[in-house]
């Protein structure tokens, strides 16, 4: 946001690029941006939402330290008491059943980037505040354990 306010960035194809980057470099960057694909290019068959998600999650740009992070161990290590351990264990099973551990790793990376750049994000919004795991990862600031929010409100 600071760069936008100072006029140092410009939108290119839905992505912000530093205005000092030349067009050749910007084109090279855009090659790595996942594109929405509705049909398999080889078979021209419609791609399911699950296949689309799996394909694009594999293209997320994040450092290997986050890709290889044992997110379950990390989040369990943030727990301060037995009630938190129980809640996190329950939630992690739900995240794992939905194959969302890569998403949790990416959210950890995103929050770390925002913190390291002194960016401010919201307190929390919608059903996501029902997740204690997201609270521990600092995605939001609503302690769902304290307010007894049911995880079923988030992961239905």
Kindly describe this structure.
The protein has 156 residues and is mostly helical. It contains eight helices and two strands. The protein has a domain at 62-153. A two-stranded antiparallel ribbon has the order 1-2. A hairpin with a 2-residue loop joins strand 1 and strand 2 (15-18).
The backbone outline, from C-alpha atoms, is globular
Percentage of residues in helical conformation:
40-55%
Instruction: Give, in order, the helices and strands.
Output: HEEHHHHHHH
Number of helices: 8
Order the strands across the largest sheet as they lie in space. 1-2
**Rg value:** 19 Å
Largest sheet: 2 strands, antiparallel
Q: Structural class of the secondary structure composition?
A: mainly alpha
Low-confidence stretches: none
Number of strands: 2
Report how far apart the termini are. Answer: 34 Å
Which percent band covers the strand fraction? 5-15%
User: What is the typical, i.e. mean, pLDDT?
Assistant: 80
Write a concise synopsis of the structure shown:
With 156 residues, the protein is mainly alpha-helical. The chain has helices spanning 2-5, 23-30, 49-57, 64-67, 71-77, 82-97, 101-116, 132-136, and strands at 9-12, 15-18.
Provide keyphrases for this structure.
mainly alpha; 2 strands; two-stranded antiparallel ribbon; 156 residues
Sequence-ordered SSE layout with sheet pairings:
Blueprint: H1 2-5, E1 9-12, E2 15-18, H2 23-30, H3 49-57, H4 64-67, H5 71-77, H6 82-97, H7 101-116, H8 132-136
Antiparallel strand pairs: 1-2
């Amino acid at each position: 946001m600071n760069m936008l306010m100072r006029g140092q960035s410009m939108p290119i194809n839905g992505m912000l690029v530093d205005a000092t980057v030349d067009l050749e470099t910007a084109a090279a960057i855009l090659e790595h941006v996942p594109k929405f694909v509705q049909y398999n290019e080889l078979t021209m068959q419609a791609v399911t939402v699950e296949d689309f998600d799996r394909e694009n999650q594999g293209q997320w740009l994040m450092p290997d330290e986050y890709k290889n992070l044992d997110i379950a161990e990390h989040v369990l290590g943030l727990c301060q008491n037995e009630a938190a351990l129980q809640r996190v264990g329950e939630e992690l099973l739900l995240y794992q059943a939905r194959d969302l551990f890569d998403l949790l790793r990416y959210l950890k990376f995103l929050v770390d980037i925002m913190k390291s750049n002194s960016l401010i994000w919201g307190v929390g919004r919608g059903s996501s505040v029902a997740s204690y795991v997201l609270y521990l990862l600092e995605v939001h600031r609503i302690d769902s354990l304290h307010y007894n929010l049911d995880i079923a409100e988030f992961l239905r």
